Amino acid sequence: MKISIVGATGYTGAELLRLLAAHPVAEILYITSESQPDTPIHEIYPHLTRFCEKRLASLADLDAIATESQAIFIGLPHGHAMEVGRKATAINPNVKIIDLGADYRFKNFDIYEQWYKVPHTHRQAQAVYGLTELNRSQVKQAGIVGNPGCYTTASILALAPLVKAGLIDLRSIIIDAKSGVSGAGRGLSLGSHFTELFESVKAYNVAGHRHTPEIEAVLGELAGQELVINFTPHLIPVARGILSTCYAQLQEGVSPEAVDAAYSSLYGDEYFVRLLGRGGYPVTKNTRGTNFCDLGWHVDKRTGRVIAIAAIDNLVKGAAGQAIQNMNVMFAIEERTGLDNAPLYP
Ligand SMILES: NC(=O)C1=CN([C@@H]2O[C@H](COP(=O)(O)OP(=O)(O)OC[C@H]3O[C@@H](n4cnc5c(N)ncnc54)[C@H](OP(=O)(O)O)[C@@H]3O)[C@@H](O)[C@H]2O)C=CC1
Ligand SMILES: CC(=O)N[C@@H](CCC(=O)OP(=O)(O)O)C(=O)O
């Protein structure tokens, strides 16, 4: 399996390199950076010393990258990935693309343009949304995968069983989610400054975060009808981890056992979804550095609401891990390959 990573100097690129170092089948051909070409990657990320000491190439090498690779992971800001995807697939129509950003996540390009404020220049209707547990059979056939966002992975996994089984009022969904700061990438900004973050928690992009239309599109497809949600993200002073707490009104007469059955039926056989059951409390630390999503749910008899909670590592199940899970599925490699490590604890 010959693969390359475009945008290897970002946090998701570095996490791909960390995880792929333990992948017995993937051979990394090219890794790229536009700001630091020719630099050995372990000089930028010393934790990769002995695991990946490759010198960075750049997009000037895209002809060779596209021709020689079977798959290209793209870890670039939105708007840039689709240009790389467009050029790479023109050079080699057989190369598979796994984009970690938003450019291939939407079937409705108007919604993408409305929320991301850039024109969509590679409109591939056949691109597959890479939430592996929900779309495995399509991922298997895909040439291009749009890997989901981090908040969306946790929130959709928490709500999908309830939506799919028709157990909740679709107009009542509220998602309250918290993310570690690596979710914002490696670039410097005032918001990710230690003194701004430490000993503090804040909400941001209330009623306007870009993961809102992504969650609505996927849950709407599962429900077979359009829906709208409230989604409020929060920044917390940790490096990794997302905790997504999701609320919805249960339909009249839905029993707690019916809620339990919806979760077991969708995820009972899923290795990377660990069901903590009714009354379970997922903890981000238990998923740290791994591709697991831990799920627990509660039924509040007083309010008639169900509260579903998901914990993931934003850089793994929320990005690089799920991207490798998708690569494994696309190339008929056992799905856990390179991803079956225990969490670092405490
Ligand atoms: N961080 C997270 O938890 C998650 C991130 N994502 C998405 O994955 C993608 C990568 O995120 P992340 O790794 O966090 O981002 P970073 O900001 O950490 O890294 C961005 C990467 O893109 C490159 N880059 C930046 N600007 C340009 C440009 N104009 N042209 C070409 N390359 C550029 C940088 O390379 P260099 O400067 O060396 O050229 C770097 O390798 C984004 O789309 C993000 O939204 C998705 C899920 C989770
Ligand atoms: C903490 C933080 O800033 N998180 C990022 C989401 C990261 C992610 O999943 O990004 P994309 O969907 O854009 O690929 C944010 O809120 O924009």
From TrEMBL:
Main location: cytoplasm
Pathway(s) served: Amino-acid biosynthesis; L-arginine biosynthesis; N(2)-acetyl-L-ornithine from L-glutamate: step 3/4
Entry EC number(s): 1.2.1.38
Subcellular compartments: Cytoplasm
Residue ranges of domain Semialdehyde dehydrogenase NAD-binding in the record: 2-142
Class of the enzyme per the UniProt entry, highest EC level: oxidoreductase
SMART domains: Semialdhyde_dh
Pfam families referenced in this protein's UniProt entry, alphabetically: Semialdhyde_dh, Semialdhyde_dhC_1
GO molecular function: N-acetyl-gamma-glutamyl-phosphate reductase activity
Keywords from the UniProt entry: Amino-acid biosynthesis, Arginine biosynthesis, Cytoplasm, NADP, Oxidoreductase
Keyword Cytoplasm: yes
Record-linked InterPro entries: AGPR (IPR050085), AGPR_AS (IPR023013), AGPR_dimerisation_dom (IPR058924), AGPR_type-1 (IPR000706), NAD(P)-bd_dom_sf (IPR036291), Semialdehyde_DH_NAD-bd (IPR000534)
Reactions that this protein is recorded to catalyse: N-acetyl-L-glutamate 5-semialdehyde + phosphate + NADP(+) = N-acetyl-L-glutamyl 5-phosphate + NADPH + H(+)
Active-site residues from the entry: 150
Classification via PANTHER family: N-ACETYL-GAMMA-GLUTAMYL-PHOSPHATE REDUCTASE, CHLOROPLASTIC-RELATED (PTHR32338:SF10), N-ACETYL-GAMMA-GLUTAMYL-PHOSPHATE REDUCTASE, CHLOROPLASTIC-RELATED-RELATED (PTHR32338)
Listed HAMAP family: ArgC_type1
Annotated family: Belongs to the NAGSA dehydrogenase family. Type 1 subfamily.
Function: Catalyzes the NADPH-dependent reduction of N-acetyl-5-glutamyl phosphate to yield N-acetyl-L-glutamate 5-semialdehyde.
The protein's name in its UniProt record: N-acetyl-gamma-glutamyl-phosphate reductase
Gene assigned in the entry: argC
